[in-house]
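Appendix B, Record 12. Input sequence as logged:
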Amino acid sequence: MIIGVPKEIKVLEHRVGLVPSSVREFVAHGHKVIVETNAGAGINFTDDDYKNAGAEIVDTAKEVFDRADMIVKVKEPQPVECEMLRENQILFTYLHLAADAKQAKGLMESGCIAIAYETVTDIYGRLPLLAPMSEVAGRLSVMVGANYLQKHHGGCGRLISGVPGVDSAKVLVIGGGVAGFNSARMAVGLGANVTILERNHDRLRYLDDYFSGKVNVIYSGRDSIEKYGCESDIVIGAVLIPGASAPKLIKRDMLSKMIPNSVMVDIAIDQGGCFETSKATTHKEPVYEVDGIVHYCVANMPGAVPLTSALALNNAVLPYGLQIADMGWVEAVRLNEHLKNGLNVCKGKIVYKPVADSLNLDYSDNISELAA
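Logged structural output:
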């Protein structure tokens, strides 16, 4: 199989679909890898690094898309990339289609086979290809929240750790999954007063046991969201419904009750955001203000630390990518039910129900017929 790696073109996105060590693994399995020139330059991987790993370097993204059987990326294809996709070509990347009808339409029109990292599962029902970026985003959320608490960045001017005799910042984390857990760990490490809101009772018990009283672990509901949201300096939205739109847990009318110039960080923005006032931003213009509250809603948060993020992502993605390349997508999803869960669009059809439901599109569950 020919594996293609284009340079990412989303604003200030420096990650890369395959790092040289991953290219070497594909080549060792007998596959050919073509990489767009300077695809890894943003994280200091040169064209020579890729050549030494066995890749062929090409001048344009168009050549990558024209020649490759499978495209491996990081972020969802931009409109110009959707136009370059072709029928039966495999796309393996993050998609986050539930909040992106335009992209879904582009993928359907291309006739490609689009497999989304964020809906691939494992035997425990977890999301192994989303987890590393959730870990990064969770840890970053506290760092950026603390940064924008600074007065000259629009915040209320409170130091997250406090100092002797002065309270530390109150940090509310809504959602106790991978992202929320990592947010809480970072916030505790910086000395904040942390509360986690979670609905799953088993997860509540795990979090309570893990943090051993260092964190307030509270059942999540309308009352608790309003109570703790209104008294927090930083609110981190870390909720996830796999493949579906995020629920809007903080409504606009609540903002007027919150601490003036507090900061809200929406990790769920890739799935539409979990605050009613959220709108996707970029690393170029990461924040905006609504009703006196600072909003940080960058849709590719891990792109701020692209070297760490690309390496962590490649570690998780590589086994699945090799399985697709070695077997072909039809056999791979037939033998691996968890990889099959990653299949979102297939030959013009939406084949992942939460996406179809979120976008009010027709859903097809007849993957065998599409594969034939």
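Residues 263 and 294 are 5 Å apart (CA to CA).
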